[in-house]
TrEMBL record:
Name this protein carries in UniProt: fructan beta-(2,1)-fructosidase
Keywords: Disulfide bond, Glycoprotein, Glycosidase, Hydrolase, Signal
Listed PANTHER family: BETA-FRUCTOFURANOSIDASE, INSOLUBLE ISOENZYME CWINV1-RELATED
Domain of life: Eukaryota
GO terms assigned for molecular function: fructan beta-(2,1)-fructosidase activity
Length: 520
């Protein structure tokens, strides 16, 4: 089983991805740090596990953590170990050979654990240290996730030598949302080339209870060790998300080669455990994404890293094609729409036909609205979008679509992934996923763009130039391989124009266990 991305970093020209992994089965357990390396974030070589249980401080598992590159260039991995008493403790590991760009061997100092839970900490819920940072006072700091009953906590620890750590005077942030896992805390520039004073800090947490992630951003004061989210941002279960679908335990890192922050996330399976055992694997990493603060400062934006486009092959283009209400057409010319990259821009022709936004929905999340107004429910403006991984007779299909509502003073744009008709298979979890996009569609002339990456059981969609991201796992039985089809549909009253559509066959990335493949 493959799970949480860990310790992502760039070292001596090589990208490193570590991740939670069970080498013995396609189910949770026996957790080690698997390790893969790449020079382009697309093609990967898998190496032997980097960190695995060897000592009393991690004898029952090596759980999630992060990498920090120290000032002298030495990478350090901080991870959660499960000790012989079942406590969650924080350990450090260093490369055995700094001249090896692939960092194939790691050493755990005997002085581990470097952070152990004291009497005030829940020792069974104390995990996932972040990348550390060094403050103006020369102290190292990092964040660990924990909980106090139902109260999720991001707790701050500090150290002078990266060996002896102590808790800060106050909790960095908290929320009444249960356990906070896999925290991430990092700065983002408010504008290109911004100076230190023009930086906001992002705090992301993964909620163990809901399996969704939420983030805030705001002001971090190094001197007082306080973090204050921007007042206009929602927090807790109503907060902003990186991805409104199947995307969890995410981790970012700063790529020094291209001066960008890259986001990794884990997509769990939505089929049964028996299916996972039968196929012999479970869990995948989402395509790495560049992440940055939106120009209006209201949210983070994200987009697949540009290197993914190196896999593009055969190309199909459609321009200025009208899709009347209640109609659809097939996008023809791809060799296999089961593995494709589709960029399309829609223009709703008559926004006056938008349905009124039900006031009762104001207290509901977008997923609830999408479940009530799915792809098969006719609307005024929308649903319109793509049917991906569709069978010839359209009995299997996954809908990625927009629906526009009219509120009191503006339009509300809903983006949905609806897999309710994605498969004939039984025992599948097929939830609709959705989010409201912060876009004034009236000012864009009714235009809204969509990009969807399709990779067999993975459907990753980006709406509004990266303002919305939704990942779904689907398991068609007929729309498989060259039998899959791609359609554009419009199930609303208003006509919709496809102003442009570019679809590409995508080659498979090269995944190897031979390091010579990477050198070439």
């Amino acid at each position: 089983m493959c799970a949480d991305p860990n310790g992502v970093m760039y070292y001596k020209g090589v990208y490193h991805l570590f991740y939670q992994y069970n080498p013995k089965a396609a189910v949770w357990g026996n957790i080690v740090w698997a390790h893969a390396v790449s020079t382009d974030l697309v093609n990967w070589v898998t190496l032997q596990p980097a960190i695995y249980p060897t000592a009393p401080f991690d004898v029952n598992g090596c759980w999630s953590g992060s990498a920090t590159v120290l000032p002298d260039g030495t990478p350090a991995i901080m991870y959660t170990g499960i000790d012989g008493d079942g406590r969650q403790v924080q350990n450090v590991a260093y490369p055995k050979d700094l001249s090896d760009p692939y960092l194939r061997e790691w050493v755990k100092p005997d002085y581990n654990p470097v952070i152990a839970p004291d009497a005030r900490v829940n020792a069974t819920a104390f995990r996932d240290p972040t990348t550390a940072w060094r403050g103006p006072d020369g102290l190292w700091r990092l964040v660990i996730g924990t909980k106090d009953n139902h109260r999720g906590l991001a707790v701050l620890y500090r150290s002078r030598d990266f060996q002896r750590w102590a808790p800060a005077r106050r909790v960095l942030h908290h929320g009444d949302t249960g356990m906070w896992e896999c925290p991430d805390f990092y700065p983002v520039a408010t504008a290109p080339g911004a100076v230190l004073g023009d930086v906001k800090h992002v705090l992301k947490v993964s909620l163990d209870l809901t399996r969704f992630e939420y983030y805030t951003f705001g002001a971090y004061d190094h001197a007082t060790e306080t973090y204050v989210p921007d007042a206009a941002l929602p927090d807790g279960n109503d907060g902003l998300r990186y991805d409104y679908g199947n995307f969890y335990a995410s981790k970012t890192f700063l790529d020094p080669a291209k001066q960008r922050r890259i986001l990794w996330g884990w997509a769990n399976e939505s089929d049964s455990t028996a299916d996972d055992v039968r196929k012999g694997w479970a869990g995948v990493q989402a395509i790495p994404r560049k992440i940055w603060l939106a120009p209006d400062g209201k949210q983070l934006m994200q987009w697949p890293v540009a290197e993914v486009e190196s896999l593009r092959g055969n190309h199909v283009n459609i321009t200025d094609r009208l899709v009347e209400g209640g109609s659809y057409f097939e996008v023809q010319g791809l060799m296999s729409p089961a593995q494709a990259d589709v960029e399309v821009s829609f223009a709703a022709m008559d926004l006056d036909k938008a349905e009124p936004f039900d006031p009762a929905w104001r207290g509901a999340d977008a997923q609830t609205v999408c479940a009530a107004r799915g792809a098969d429910v006719k609307g005024g403006v929308g649903p319109f979008g793509l049917w991906v991984l569709a069978s010839d007779e359209l009995k299997e299909r996954t809908a990625v679509f927009f629906r526009v509502f009219k509120a009191e003073d503006k339009h509300v744009v809903l983006m949905c992934n609806d897999p309710s008709r994605s498969s004939y298979a039984d025992h599948l979890y097929k939830p609709t996923f959705a989010g409201f996009i912060d876009v004034d569609i009236a000012k864009t002339g009714g235009k809204i763009p969509l990009r969807t990456l399709i990779d067999h059981s993975m459907v990753e969609s980006f709406g509004g130039h990266g303002r919305m991201s939704i990942l779904s796992r689907v398991y068609p039985t007929r729309a498989v391989g060259d039998k899959a089809r791609l359609y554009v549909f419009n199930h609303g009253e208003s006509d919709v124009k496809v102003t442009h559509l570019n679809a590409y066959d995508m080659r498979s990335a090269k995944i190897s266990n031979e390091i010579d493949q990477l050198i070439r």
